[in-house]
Design goal:
Elements: H1 2-27, H2 55-59, H3 74-91, H4 96-119, H5 124-145, H6 147-172, H7 179-192, H8 194-230, H9 235-242, H10 247-250, H11 254-269
Helix pairs in contact: 1-3, 1-4, 3-4, 4-5, 4-11, 5-6, 5-7, 6-7, 6-8, 7-8, 7-11, 8-9, 8-11
Amino acid sequence: MFAIFYALVYGLFGLVIGSFLNVVIIRRGARTLGGRSGCLSCGARLAWYDLIPVLSWLALRGRCRTCNASISLQYPLVEASTAMLFALIGLSPLPIAMQAVSLAIIAFLVLITVYDLRHTIIPDEWSYSFALLAFAAGLPFALQQGLESGLVPLLIAGPLCALPLFALWLVSRGRWMGLGDAKLSLGIGFLLGIGPGLLAIFFAFLIGAFVSVFVLLPYSYLRYLLLQMQGSKRITRFRLTTKGFTMRSEVPFGPFLVLGTLVVWLCSIYRLPLPLLDII
C-alpha cells in the first residue's frame, strides 16, 4: 500500500518536473526561464488549465486553443517519461537522500536526451552537472569501502568509460562520434562503475545498431523510392543527405547512451541480473 502511495507521489512530482524540463529544453539559448508560457506559433499566453501535464495536451488533442496549430508530442512524452522514472525511484529501496540525488540525475538525463534529439548537441553544462551528481551519488559508498577498494575505482571509472568514445571521436575527427557523447560517458562511469558503465555503453551501441539497421535504413530507402517514383526535385538533395550513412548522421547517439544507462542503473537498483556483466 505504501509502495503505491510513494509511486503516485513521485510520479505526480515527475509530471511537474517534466513540464519544467520542457520549458528548459525549448527556451535554452532563446529566452530566459521566467515569464508566462505561450503558444510557439501564435504567441498566445496559455491559461493554467492549458498547462496541466499530459492532460491538457490530451484535452486539446495536441492543438493550440487559439490558433489550432499543432503542439509537439514532445511535451506529453517528456512529462510522462519523467513521471514514470520518478515513480521507479520512489519504489526503489534507496535511502531518501540517494533518491533525491537520483531524481536530479534523471532530470538531467531527460534534458540531455531530448535536447540531443532536437539539436544533435549535448550542452556541456548538463553533461558536467550529470557527472558531478553521479560522482556525488557514488562518493559515500566509495568512502566506506576505503581508498583502494572504493575511492580509486570511483575516480577512474568516469575517465575509463569515456575513453572508448573519446578515442572514436579522436580517430574519426568527429565523423563517427561526437565529443559530447564522450563527455556524457564520464558521468555514466561515475554513476555505474567501470564494468556496468562499459556494459551500458555496449548496450547503447547494440540499441543504436538495431535502430539504424531495422528502422532508419529501411525508412530512408523507402523514402528514396517514393521520391524517385514521384519524380521529385528533392531527389538530388536526398541522395546527398543519405550518402555516407552513419548512425550519428541520422540520429544522435546520446539518447542511446542514456537508454543503456537507465537499463543498467535500474537493474542495479532493483538487484536484477545483468547479462554479460561477468564478462566485462
